[in-house]
Amino acid sequence: MSQYIHHVPGRIRVRSKAFCCHSEKARAAESRLLALTGVRQVRLNPHAASITVHYDPVLLRQSDLFSVLEQSGCLGAASRSDEVSRKAGELFGKALVGAVVQKAVEQSARTLVGAFI
Predict the structure, then answer these.
(1) Which positions of the chain have pLDDT values less than 70?
(2) CA–CA distance, 47 with 117 (Å, rounded to integer)
(3) Which of 72, 98, 115, 117 lies in disulfide reach of 29, CB 3.0 to 4.6 Å?
(4) Residue 25 burial (CB count, 10 A)
(5) Which residues pair with 13 in a beta bridge?
(6) Containing H/E element for 3?
(7) How far apart are CA 53 and CA 58, in angstroms?
(8) pTM over 0.85
(9) What residues are paired with 6 via a beta bridge?
(10) Which one of 3.10.20.740, 3.30.750.24, 3.30.70.100, 3.10.20.30 gives the CATH number of domain 1-76?
(11) Alpha helix segments (H runs only) across the chain
(12) In this structure, are residues 54 and 39 in contact, taking their beta carbons and an 8 Å threshold?
């Protein structure tokens, strides 16, 4: 099942076919999420095949919300590995940009020193 996850602390949005094709699972997930201490609002949108959860990031972690969605059958276990892969990609990208910038600075410094000599 393909999924899309957008997360900022305090708000998570998950798009999955489970939210439009399996309404009983989606309603169960919505109820279970609303029962969690720290969840402020849950909005299920079957037309967009998504669920949006507003929560208190001090009381809940993203993994707590994923667990409820997984247990409800609305989110596959692959989503966690997808999230890890995405974060690894972001870290690799930042490291690559950092290395390129460092090389550019070193080259600029050499050029500047060469101009003074």
Answers:
(1) 1-2, 76-89, 92
(2) 68
(3) 72
(4) 17
(5) 6, 52
(6) strand 3-8
(7) 15
(8) no
(9) 13
(10) 3.30.70.100
(11) 18-21, 23-34, 62-71, 78-116
(12) yes
